[in-house]
Amino acid sequence: MTETFKAILVSRDAEKKQSVAVTDLTDADLMEGDVTIAVEATTVNYKDGLAISGKAPVIRRWPLVPGIDLAGTVISSSNPDWRKGDKVILNGWGVGETHFGAYAGRARVKGDWLVPLPESMSAHDAMAVGTAGYTAMLCVMALERHGILPDRGPVVVTGAAGGVGSVAVSILSSLGYHVVASTGRNAESPYLINLGAAEVISRDELNQPAKPLAKERWAGGIDSVGSHILANVLSMTSYGGAVAACGLAGGMDLPSSVAPFILRGVSLLGIDSVMAPKAVRLEAWRRIGSDLDVDKLASLSTTIGFDGIIGAAHDIVDGKIRGRVVVDM
């Protein structure tokens, strides 16, 4: 008898109306790849919320199993880098967009897309980090390369109560930065201070149309919001500072001016997590294993089961999720 496993399948009809269903699949239903993985944990990212809710055109192949992140154990491999029993992580590479993703009991992928699970972490820990946390680490590494170290001054984190923001606050504080956390949810101030924020400011301070230049408030920033928020962060960045931009929760536009760049020498650092080269991924996960306080992971994440994925996907798009969501498969 052929073994089946549960999966979430997003489909579209002739009128392009999207539907989401829980179904049973077999190994024969999986897409091409040289490594098959038993999915032990996954997560719900903002992008996953957009995919399941249909609020943005994340999915580009129909039907599709969504889910851009997974951690699990190799069941079978024809790739020389991986053997049965290896513990692995996958983030991005079009999984959950054009290739069957994490919201199934099994995944078949290219071995080149995988990185080893750090020995200090469980599959659950890795998904408490997930693409959001891995992206946060890419942002921290970019700021460091640009010379934005703790002695340069405060660093602002926007969308601080979200997935990227929560991990960024935690990592930066662990590294000794003075972290200014910006959030639209003022009730989350105690949570952010517990993660290591030195100051919490209201999103309202950054959500108005930006002046070309404003008072210098920080040496750098990590922004997952975009639009007016990013424009204001740039206008308030001190001379020679840098801002790492990795998200668009507030909009894809950037209503700014060239003033911060040509009058203060500010740099805007673009961060892409989906197609980042393997060497960069390996370094980011090595740093996560060493620089992220695993005890803080528990406070910035909540755990749900497979049956909670669809509800959580809608909640994250509606701004109702704090920190990270781990799915125990």
Summarize the structure.
This protein folds into two domains: 5-117 and 297-328, Medium-chain alcohol dehydrogenases, catalytic domain (Quinone Oxidoreductase, Chain A, domain 1, Alpha-Beta Complex), CATH 3.90.180.10; 129-270, 3-Layer(aba) Sandwich (Rossmann fold), CATH 3.40.50. The chain is 29% helix and 26% strand. The protein contains nine helices and 15 strands.
Walk me through the structure.
The structure is a single chain. It contains nine helices and 15 strands. The protein is an alpha/beta fold and 329 residues long. The protein folds into two domains: 5-117 and 297-328, Alpha-Beta Complex (Quinone Oxidoreductase, Chain A, domain 1), CATH 3.90.180; 129-270, NAD(P)-binding Rossmann-like Domain (Rossmann fold, 3-Layer(aba) Sandwich). The strands form three sheets. Strands 3, 4, 5, 6, 7, 14 and 15 form a seven-stranded mixed sheet that branches. α2 crosses α7.
